[in-house]
Amino acid sequence: MAIHQSCDGIARRDFLRCGALGFGALGGPGLSLASYLRLNAAGQVHEATAKQGIFIHLQGGPSHLDTFDMKPDAPTEYRGTFNPIETAVPGMQITEHLPKIAQCADKLVLLRGVTHTLGAHRLGSEYVNTGTRPLPSLEYPGFGSVVAKETAPWNAGDLPAFVSIPQNGHQKPGFLGIQYAALSTGGAPKAGTPFRVRGVNLAGGLTIQEVEKRQNLRNDLDIAFQSIQQEDPLLAGLDRFSQQAHAIITSRRSRDAFDISQESPHFTKPFGESAFGLSCLLATRLVASGVRFVSMQMGGWDTHQNNFSRLKDDKLPTLDEGLAALLIGLEQKGLLESTAVYVTGEFGRTPKINSKSSEGGRDHYPRCMFMLLAGGGMRGGQVIGQSDDKATLPAHEDQAFSPDDVAATFYHALGIDHAKEYHTTTGRPVMIVREGKVIPAVFA
Question: Based on CB atoms within 10 Å of each CB, which residue in 40, 225, 256, 322 is the most buried?
């Protein structure tokens, strides 16, 4: 690992960039509270600057050893067949099959050794989409719904606060209610095809004038049901949806926000033609237009069999193209500092390769995984956290990060207090993130 030495060991710049920073006990490895406070006093800590957020769920759980936490010195049955490459950040290595992301790694915060205990897809997905361990008795809201509730629209009200591409997945409003649910596009953009969102693009010969007539009729009927609506949160949510739908349908600005054909060919080309890449293109256009939060899903990471060929031939090139274009595109539009980006699967994969296919695969493994953050005042070009020599567990137990900690950090970048209490419809007080703590090193 290429680290520049100084008289006291590792130079401060390299310590910040690839020193496996963490928020642990004083005297332990990583960034202590005292060190963080000294950096803050010296003006070396970034302020959270995000106005918008993008969340990308890699559904199925990508292998950490074959992507962002490689162990080239581990035994063959652990390290696999891929080789690491250097990135734009000295000392940060990732898989050879992510060359475009490697070149823009200075925009990323790479978290290694993130750990939890939920190895089922549904439970793990609910956990990383909310930042709180799921309970059978309560559905917690996803990031987008919290952002929709916490941040008043900073543009006119003819844009949805929260958009999911192509569907909300595990980004649900939970106990906050349907009024904070996402507008789901229902599909991903396709190359060379006009992108239509049901409810935004008029179909079947419906005209704006007809929509206006129907809206006026609905307003007349609402007078009769107003007292009932005030007592029923579901009806209130549906009423908010209908009002917003009317504003969106009749707004040219809103329809233009979803029209990726208006982007220049020069800007569009790096995103490629995959559904994921074009979804990333749409996400950049949406946040540029004023949408507060966009969530995306990229599936196919459940590689119990043929792990290496599936990653090499499909998943990694698609992720590499789309995510790199997203980060660079946000920067080109002047939006990276005002947009917090969070990329994660629901867990990692087993360090030891199984024998379920001729080339082997990896199974569910929540005890060690990676997560990625970028933008929003978070200091890119860092590796924070560390796994052990086979990527089986965090290297230092007292500095193991949980999905709760990463969620608290993401909310902090968005200017939202993760410890704020909401109340369910029954009056039960619930914190946005129950257990998490902000990771200071992300901003230092």
Answer: 322
